[in-house]
């Protein structure tokens, strides 16, 4: 895997921005391969020797074409699937099966339809037998973070798609996971809602600096959100390149027009589609 930094600015990177990670990684994906078995003794290699280190507090984004193994990679980190080869470590401990330390937000809405917004956010805390006096301020805090205090008593079917994803984000954060895994969480939303969700996620992230591993096929979204963008190859998925995003934080949607942003975008488009760089 190559590492590149496009620095067209003399501004110093923000403290949490793309600065080179120091110290041991919070999450280490170490030479992981994944082969799915198919009927009749055949198999498909979905991921090929993928290595990624994610530092505590880092917002790492993976982009890649459809079918390159992005979701599979998150399932592996979540402990829902086992690697065929290689290892995954969270704070130095090998991942074996799912655990509360890894929160997930999927593209499809995964709220419990029979629970209210409040109860959905509270669900994991109840399951961990957290006392009510501790649960209440925590649920209230995260509902406020995603702007849904007014909708605490509503049921999922009364909400728009964007609102449901805001509940899913609040629910994941309320569990205080060590790492938040997000698989194209805004992929099903219209472009306007998607932009407002990106803005919301940036704001929420400024408040808690969670370690995030975020998957998308939207290049603008990747650059806007990430401290680093990892570009995958078509299947079998490999990490082609790791690109540091040294745009300052807090980020704003207007940054998509900045020269640094466009330079990184050109590089990613070149990697994904083999165009852009040579056309200068
Ligand atoms: P992405 O999220 O990047 O679109 P996926 O991780 O969903 O990619 O899938 C990667 C590859 O593995 C695809 O070719 C897909 O068809 C295959 N695949 C995913 N899940 C399974 C499965 N359970 N059994 C067999 N093949 C699978
Ligand atoms: Mg996927």
Radius of gyration: 19 Å
What is the overall silhouette? globular
Q: Helicity level, as a percent range?
A: 25-40%
Strand order across the largest sheet: 1-11-10-4-9-8-7
Count every helix, treating DSSP H or I runs of 4 or more residues as helices: 7
- Number of DSSP strands? 11
Spans of at least 5 consecutive residues with low confidence: 7-19, 276-280
Main β sheet profile: 7 strands, mixed
- Summing up helix and strand content along with how strands pair, one would put the structural category as alpha/beta
Taken in chain order, the helices and strands follow as EEEEHEEEHHHEHEHEEH
Heteromolecules bound: adenosine-5'-diphosphate, magnesium ion
Instruction: Give the overall pLDDT as a whole number.
Output: 90
How far apart the termini lie comes to 25 Å
Strand content: 15-25%
């Amino acid at each position: 895997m190559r590492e590149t930094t496009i620095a067209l600015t003399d501004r110093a990177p923000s403290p949490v921005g793309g600065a080179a990670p120091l110290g041991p990684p919070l999450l280490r994906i170490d030479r992981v391969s994944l082969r799915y078995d198919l009927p009749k003794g055949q198999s498909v290699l979905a991921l090929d020797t993928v290595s990624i280190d994610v530092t505590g507090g880092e917002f790492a984004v993976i982009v890649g074409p459809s079918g390159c193994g992005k979701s599979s990679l998150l399932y592996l980190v979540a402990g829902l699937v086992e690697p065929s080869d290689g290892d995954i470590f969270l704070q130095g401990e090998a991942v074996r099966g799912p655990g509360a330390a890894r929160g997930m937000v999927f593209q499809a809405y995964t709220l419990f339809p029979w629970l209210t917004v409040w109860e959905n956010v509270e669900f994991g805390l109840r399951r961990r037998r957290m006392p009510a006096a501790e649960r209440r301020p925590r649920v209230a805090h995260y509902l406020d973070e995603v702007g849904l205090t007014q909708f605490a008593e509503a049921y999922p079917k009364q909400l728009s798609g964007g609102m449901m994803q805001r509940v899913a984000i609040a629910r994941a954060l309320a569990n205080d996971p060590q790492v938040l895994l997000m698989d194209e969480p805004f992929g099903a939303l219209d472009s306007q809602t998607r932009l407002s969700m990106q803005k919301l996620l940036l704001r929420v992230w400024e408040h808690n600096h969670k370690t995030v591993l975020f998957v998308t096929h939207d290049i603008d979204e990747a650059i806007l959100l990430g401290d680093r963008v990892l570009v995958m190859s078509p299947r079998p998925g490999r990490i082609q390149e790791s690109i540091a995003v040294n745009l300052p934080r807090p980020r704003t949607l207007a940054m998509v027009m900045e020269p640094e942003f466009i330079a990184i975008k050109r590089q990613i488009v070149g990697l994904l589609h083999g165009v852009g760089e040579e056309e200068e």
